[in-house]
Design goal:
By secondary structure, the chain is mainly α. The chain is 66% helix and 7% strand.
Length: 424
């Protein structure tokens, strides 16, 4: 009686866990498709259909593959009942006959596992290619980064071929992947095969870490406020979450080989969802920024914060933090110094340049006190005078090189009379 009750309890718990996973898997699928659709909308509304890049199409392909992967993960538990050709004794294998339902389910489950590994790798490497293409598009105007991008593409291609060859050649002949009796060996158990688990993990982590490191030198050298730099570094480091999910998946598979088939399908869906989210996140920031700025303004208004220049600068600063285009411009500036005034008090050149557009810019006098008294004696009429000297720089661009040349120095004076301009 107790054994029957215990068996029923385990079966009920397994069914509850399966229902929970089904809800989770299709919820993640819906979110992934929504995120992909939103990213595509943002890109089309920004550049139009004709100006979409390869990463935009790769993301759409990834959404299709992710749907297939979710269907396979669903089939593992709902059709194959979480079974494959692993976690069986020799006596259990010998007792099964090809006509038995369990035998057929284990064969089917093993084949689903193989298909799952294929779609898992195909999806992850599509997303890696999309991310590398995005980096190329983001840095194509910056010198010195083309080689890193090309190495990234080469690494993605080589590792993808490696994991596919590992899947094909690690168990030979190929039908042993779903063989029940005799035991084909642990390397031919597709749900928990050490060859598959560790090869996929090592190649996956290696490519993720390399892709994360591509933009880091640019971010580190870019002339921008430290808080904006930290924000962008965190944004481009989100790939670490994919790496953590991959490592966690392997740990669970190794620690629980009995339920390896079900765990493999479940955690593959979770890991690839994180990958889809991370890959689309940078492209969603322009739209998220448009939504966030009005919210920040409304919150400020509700707190009765007056709309003064400082609050306007705070809003502008928030906008710049989430702007990838701003980062590109500042990265380009840092590669060739252009400034109106020399830096003061160890301020960066970008900070000085940005101050020109702010009303709080401090204007330094360019005439001595004696000259000011002389001017006052010649014309005693009370008036406000402002004298500014600027250096005008002319910037020319070619396809791959830029040059800046000094065009001349100008002195401009303002008073209550018409302004006059002198060229020196």
């Amino acid at each position: 009686m107790d054994l029957a009750t215990s068996h029923d309890d385990k079966a009920a718990a397994a069914m509850a866990a399966l229902r929970a996973f089904n809800i989770e898997a299709f919820t993640l699928l819906a979110l992934a498709l929504l995120i992909t659709a939103l990213r595509t909308y943002v890109r089309i509304s920004t550049v139009g259909w004709r100006n979409l890049w390869a990463d935009d199409y790769l993301i759409l392909l990834a959404a299709v593959v992710y749907s297939v992967e979710t269907s396979l993960a669903y089939s593992v538990g709902n059709i194959a009942k979480g079974m494959a050709n692993n976690s069986m004794t020799d006596a259990q294998r010998a007792a099964l006959q090809p006509d038995d339902t369990e035998y057929q389910l284990r064969v089917l489950g093993s084949k689903i596992q193989l298909a799952g590994w294929s779609t898992y790798s195909f999806l992850l490497w599509i997303l890696k290619g999309a991310m590398c293409t995005f980096y190329y598009r983001l840095t194509k105007d910056l010198e010195g980064y083309r080689t890193r991008i090309l190495v990234g593409f080469a690494l993605i291609i080589v590792t993808f071929v490696g994991v596919q060859l590992n899947l094909i050649l690690s168990c030979h002949p190929f039908y042993r992947w779903w063989q029940i009796y005799p035991d084909p060996g642990v390397y031919c158990h597709p749900a928990i095969s050490p060859n598959l688990v560790w090869t996929y993990l090592s190649f996956n982590v290696a490519t993720d870490l390399y892709l994360i490191m591509i933009p880091m030198p640019m971010l580190w050298k870019a002339a921008m406020p430290w808080f904006q730099k930290v924000w962008l570094i965190a944004l481009f480091s989100c790939g670490l979450f994919v790496t953590m999910a991959a490592i966690l998946r392997v740990v669970l598979l190794v620690s629980d080989p009995v339920n390896g088939a079900q765990l493999a399908g479940s955690w593959a869906v979770r890991e690839t969802f994180v990958a889809v989210l991370v890959t689309n996140l940078p492209m969603l920031f322009p739209q998220l920024k448009k939504w966030a700025i009005p919210i920040v303004a409304r919150v400020s208004s509700s707190l009765s914060i007056a709309r003064n220049p400082s609050s306007s600068r705070a809003e502008s600063r928030f906008s710049n933090i989430t702007s990838l285009d701003s980062w590109r411009r500042k990265s380009r500036r840092s590669s060739r110094p252009i400034s109106i005034n020399p830096p003061r008090n160890n301020e960066s050149e970008v900070t000085i340049i940005d101050e020109v557009n702010h009303p709080e810019t401090e204007l330094q006098p360019t005439i001595s006190e004696e000259e000011a008294h002389t001017i006052a004696k010649e014309d005693p009429t009370p008036r406000i005078q402002l004298h500014i000297e600027v250096s005008v720089l002319e910037e020319t661009e070619t396809n791959n090189r830029r040059a800046s040349t000094r065009s001349g120095n100008y002195a401009v004076s303002w008073s209550d009379s018409p302004p006059k301009t002198e060229k020196s």
